[in-house]
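Write out a sequence, fold above all:
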Amino acid sequence: MAEASGKAEAVRGLDLDDWELYRVMDSDTGEVLCSIGLRASGEPSAVEYGFWALDDAEPTRTGTLSELARGKAWSDKEREEALREVVRKHGKDVALKVKDVVFNIGTK
C-alpha cells in the first residue's frame, strides 16, 4: 500500500453522469492515493459517495452523508465538507489524514 509522504491535494476531475469526481494525489510524487465520487442524493440534504482506494476499478467504500447539501445546488464549501468527511471515514485505507489534504475543488 502506498502511503502519503506528507501533504496531498484533492482536485476535481471530469463529471460522470450525476457524479462529481475528485482525485486525491500525493503532493510530492503525484501518485493518486484515492478517488472520491459525490452526487446529490434523492433524499433532501444528503450526498451519496463512492471511495476508490488507489487504482481500484470499483469503489471500495460507499455511503450517504446527511445534512451536507441542499439538493442539486450546493456550494464549494459544502463539497469540501463532504470530501473531508469521506477522507475522515475512509482515508485510513490509504494512510491519509484530513489535516494533510489541501482541497482545490472549484466547480467546472
